[in-house]
Amino acid sequence: MRQAGRYLPEYRKLREDTPNFLSFCYSPALTVEAALQPLRRFQPDAAILFSDILVIPDGLGQSVRFEGGVGPVLEPIRSETDLKQLQVSKVLDHLEPVFESVRQLSAALPHNVALIGFAGSPWTVAYYMVEGRSGQDGSTIKKWAIEEPDGFQKLIDILVPVTTDYLIEQIKNGAETIQLFDSWSGLLEAEHFDRWIIQPTREIVAGIKQHNPDVPVIGFPRGAGDQTIKYAENTGVDGIGIDSDISPAWARDNLQGLKTVQGNLDNQILREGGKKLEDETINILQTLSGGPFIFNLGHGILPETPPDNVIRVAEIVRGHHHAST
């Protein structure tokens, strides 16, 4: 979960020469190096493409920039009129540098390391497109989706096929597993969760499977709580990412009979390290290793995380795996 990133000194050094984050994302030589850095340090079982979920709105022609200390800033879309400015036909051409990154990364990885491609789910990408930046309470997008659902549906209807095509193209170029990040799914109550989270995800997964039936898809509906069950049952995903608010025991009892579970070490505990980190890692492993399970975090690694803490987790996970096989 954001394994290549802000906590590694070698990554920060790499970024110094290309401060514009989107330019970095469109530079295959740099993104491949960023994806390989954690592989050298920690030897995980998979590498994840280095990119960002907002390359989709950027590809659609929306103004997207990243400000230091602020994060992404977009020219917000607030109406059906704004939607007419989006240029759907040019997205895949615009994202060719990402596909080149996938090709190069696929060629560079050892055979025993899987390559994960990814995208943001429509609701989460729409959140940024409508709110204009992260850290908002989601009131603007919720108002549009709930009060004018037919108008908001038009934005989702743009994002579903574009995201599907984007992921199919990643697979064509070497991605072996796909992850869909729905980081803002926790904003929606049950009555709206089906329409704006489950339905678009189901359409994307079906589109991927039509062309690539054997490529696993992992869905990560962060903040969804007990709605994660119906997400697992109704979207067609093969794996379900869980955040740190879900207890491993609850995931074992409610999700693991349905899907492979991925998660869910708390990134704050990873940052702090020490005995608490070791105990929590062991607890997750002991609770979830009886069924299909991928060890991961419950959210992205925090910038202040000491790499030694990540090394310790990797050692414990590998030791547990070897002890149980």
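[next item in queue]
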Amino acid sequence: MKADYKNWVPKSMVFGALAATAVSIMLLIVSEHFTTGKLHTLCFILFSLLLLASAVCSIMFISWYQAFSYNGRRKLSKHIIEGVAEYVKIPDGGTGLDVGCGSGALTIACAKRNPKAQIIGIDRWGNDYKSFSKALCERNAKAEGVNNTAFQKGDATALDFPDGYFDCVTSNYVYHNITGADKQALLRETLRVLKKGGTFAIHDIMSPIRYGNMQRFIAELKKEGYEKVELMDTTNDVFMSRREAMRLQLGGSALLTGIK
């Protein structure tokens, strides 16, 4: 049995854009044969714009799908997951938390690097990513021969764990998807459950428009006694190049790491 971590870009998104492109072509052809005068001109403009938009989306989504595929040539998802996992250090007998575990990729990668620790992966597994589930995470852990993981439903905005419960907390490309939430507040909630002396590694699109002033946030953490806090730009040939980040709309991706 082989692990199946799925793709960060749902197939439905790709197929939807391709279907919209096909429908636009059909509408353009039909309007060309069955309309005249002003209506013909209006239909031509409208359906041409629709075709252009759907074609651009199709190309973009296919590009994303290929880049993030675990079975493709680039394997960007795998590269990022393994890169984040390198920063996860958990003492023997300790416990780590992966927020928004999806298909279990980062949870399992952390478990492999920390075989004597227990890693808990939580996710809401909602309609946005129907192919991801708790059962899928458990199958992937089994396929990877990992037995120090556990998966359960959870809410990143209100973690169901007491203060200072974990030796490590981590997350990858999760918080930017939570609409309407203060991203720094989400970071605070994640760090709330981290023990004194524990480590954290949180990767996301931490652009100012989403996260606000992160340098000020880091300064606040240091004033509160965090031993070490660093913000690393992962589009500067760390996980990807700036050009690739812009093409895949991942500009602003950064890794927040440190010790409490």
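[queue empty]
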